[in-house]
Each structure stands twice: as C-alpha cells, then as structure tokens.
Amino acid sequence: MAQKISAQKKVTLNKLSNFSIVLGSSFCALALVLVVQRYSPLRLSFNINFIPQSVSTSQKIEIRPVRIVISSQKINLPIIDARISKKKWPTSESGVSYIKDSSIPGEKGNSILYGHNWTTLLGNLIYVKPGEKIEVYFSDQSKKTFVVENTATVSPKNITVLLSSKEPLLTIYTCTGFLDSKRFVVTARPLNS
C-alpha cells in the first residue's frame, strides 16, 4: 500500500513539475515578446510614411519647441526633434518627440508631438480632459498656451489626426490599449484663438 501511494505521489509530482516547466517557459516567452514590443521602433508609429505638410527651413531655424508642460497631469518634458524615415518614427526615452516636418506649435497647421506611455513620459496623457491647459516653451524663451479641445483613442490606421489643419492645432499622442495596439490622441488649440 505504501508503495502504491509513493508511486501516485511520484506521478503527481512529475505532472506538477512538467506543468511548472511549461508555465515558466510561457512566462519567459511572454516577457521576451513584451520587451521586443516595448523597444520596437514601430511602436509609436501610425500607418503613414510622411506628414503631409511642411514648414520652411527658415521658420524652423528661428524658433523650435523645447519643452511641454501639462501641469494638471504632472507632465513636464523636453521636446526632442524627430523625422520619420522609412516608416520608422524615432522615439525618445527622455522626452517627447516632435515631428520637424509638422508645423511649429501655435502656427498654422498641425504640430505633432508623441512619446512613450511610460510613467516617466506620457503615461498620464490618457487622463487629460478637454479644457485643460498645455504649455509649450520655445528656444527663444517664449511660451504658448493651448487648451485641450478633444481626446480620442484611435487605430494606428486612422491617420486623420495627423493631417494638416488650416488653423493652428497641437496634436499629442501616446500608445494605449492591449499591447499598445491603439493611440490615445489629444488635440489642443492656442488659448484665445
């Protein structure tokens, strides 16, 4: 009888051991997928290879955005220039990326800023509400204030949020959703416009 119980115990322990190995391997595979996905250069991209607008080089040299502040969400980050190349949207681990081919914030057209949804970057962007203020600081020490007009969660295939505007528009976005499969987009207009 003791040998029968011992044999059953071995079978149970063997099954438990196999289950633990499979479960551990599954978690390692999931962790690898998440690490690769987190650092993928395509992670923050929309399904577009260019921004359909441009601003003259002379305007870009005179003034450029250098910092964004959304006090209500404790966001205060440097702005890093970026340019889309071969469908790769450069990202920064220390600030918000600014598409240099988009308009200068506050000028006619759509100014596009984006960044990771990490807690140290734009993680709190999803809590921004219409009516909140966004401040953009520039290289000439000036500041422009924007008011959030709209927030939305969109698919990366929905490029309408990136299109040019006849009026000054500030668009800020980050990833959201399961495995960052969506984009959380904030649009804002200059205060008193």
TrEMBL record:
The yes or no answer to whether the keyword Hydrolase is present is yes
The entry's keywords: Hydrolase, Membrane, Transmembrane, Transmembrane helix
Please give the Gene Ontology molecular function terms for this protein: hydrolase activity
Kindly give the Pfam families that the UniProt entry links to this protein: Sortase (PF04203)
Give the transmembrane region(s): 16-36
Q: Which domain of life is it from?
A: Bacteria
Record's protein name: Sortase
Q: Report the source organism.
A: Candidatus Roizmanbacteria bacterium RIFCSPLOWO2_01_FULL_38_11
